[in-house]
């Protein structure tokens, strides 16, 4: 009887540990997305301060390439939309989506 309870308890502990790993992975992914969102909002604000006489460069690998201001603004805007969608629309896995979870 005690062995059966011990095995069941061990199984539940393993499930709990897996949930902790999943939560940690989800939190890490969310934190990365939040950091990217903050960085891109700062870039958007900086680009808003520029006018047509300013030159904007884009880093492609080890090379800086000249980019049109409008194109840079559009790129940052699309990036913000994508990151926001990932964060708020649940593209990032959310703990509790698994029907077998305890949440």
UniProtKB/TrEMBL annotation:
Query: Which SUPFAM superfamilies does this UniProt record tie to the protein?
Result: Prefoldin
State the coiled-coil residue ranges. 2-36
Sorted alphabetically, which Pfam families does this protein's record hold?
Answer: Prefoldin_2
Gene3D superfamilies per the UniProt record, alphabetical:
1.10.287.370
Q: Which InterPro entries match?
A: PFD_beta-like, Prefoldin
**GO molecular function terms noted in the UniProt entry:** protein-folding chaperone binding; unfolded protein binding
Family the entry assigns: Belongs to the prefoldin subunit beta family.
Q: Which GO terms describe its cellular component?
A: cytoplasm; prefoldin complex
Q: How is the quaternary structure described? A: Heterohexamer of two PFD-alpha type and four PFD-beta type subunits. Component of the PAQosome complex which is responsible for the biogenesis of several protein complexes and which consists of R2TP complex members RUVBL1, RUVBL2, RPAP3 and PIH1D1, URI complex members PFDN2, PFDN6, PDRG1, UXT and URI1 as well as ASDURF, POLR2E and DNAAF10/WDR92.
| Classification lineage | Eukaryota, Metazoa, Chordata, Craniata, Vertebrata
Provide this UniProt record's keywords sorted from A to Z.
Chaperone, Coiled coil
Q: What is the native source organism of this protein?
A: Propithecus coquereli
Task: Briefly state the protein's biological role.
Answer: Binds specifically to cytosolic chaperonin (c-CPN) and transfers target proteins to it. Binds to nascent polypeptide chain and promotes folding in an environment in which there are many competing pathways for nonnative proteins.
Top-level lineage group: Eukaryota
Q: What name goes with this protein?
A: Prefoldin subunit 6
In its UniProt record, which GO terms are filed under biological process?
Answer: chaperone-mediated protein complex assembly; protein folding
């Amino acid at each position: 009887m005690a062995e059966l309870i011990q095995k069941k308890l061990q199984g539940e502990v393993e499930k709990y540990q897996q949930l902790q790993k999943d939560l940690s992975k989800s939190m890490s992914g969310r934190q990365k997305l939040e950091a990217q969102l903050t960085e891109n909002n700062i870039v958007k604000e900086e680009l808003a301060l520029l006018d047509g006489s300013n030159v904007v460069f884009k880093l492609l690998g080890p090379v800086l390439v000249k980019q049109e201001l409008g194109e840079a603004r559009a790129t940052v805007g699309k990036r913000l939309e994508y990151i926001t969608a990932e964060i708020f629309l649940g593209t990032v896995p959310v703990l509790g989506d698994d029907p077998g979870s305890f949440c």
